[in-house]
TrEMBL record:
This is Plectin/eS10 N-terminal domain-containing protein. It is found in: Cytoplasm. It comes from Suhomyces tanzawaensis NRRL Y-17324. Residues 3-93 form the Plectin/eS10 N-terminal domain. Residues 93-123 are annotated as: Disordered.
Amino acid sequence: MLIPREERKKIHQYLFQEGVVVAKKDFNQPKHEEIDTRNLFVIKALQSLTSKGFVKTQFSWQYYYYTLTDEGVDFLRTELNIPEGILPLTRLKNAPAERPQRGGFRGPRRGGAEGGYRRRARD
């Protein structure tokens, strides 16, 4: 399918920026939810990248899920003239979040005598 160069560039830029694209299987949908282009152009452009091995496709519940592969990152980097230091959002490593310690301060135990252990005294 012939896709205008500007539309293909929008799709490739979004794919490189996010690392993933989700498209509903609706070929008559006038606009894609995320990208400002026709949904048919998105599906067909990513179908082409899938056949070249640059994108992995998963289909579930009438939605296409496209994930960028390592070869796809290299291909889009050369096609879009993006420097080496920039990566898709799915490839960035987040710093581990600071977690509060579990439990906190509990204070002294409450209960009966002798450490709270109840047992009948034997004679």
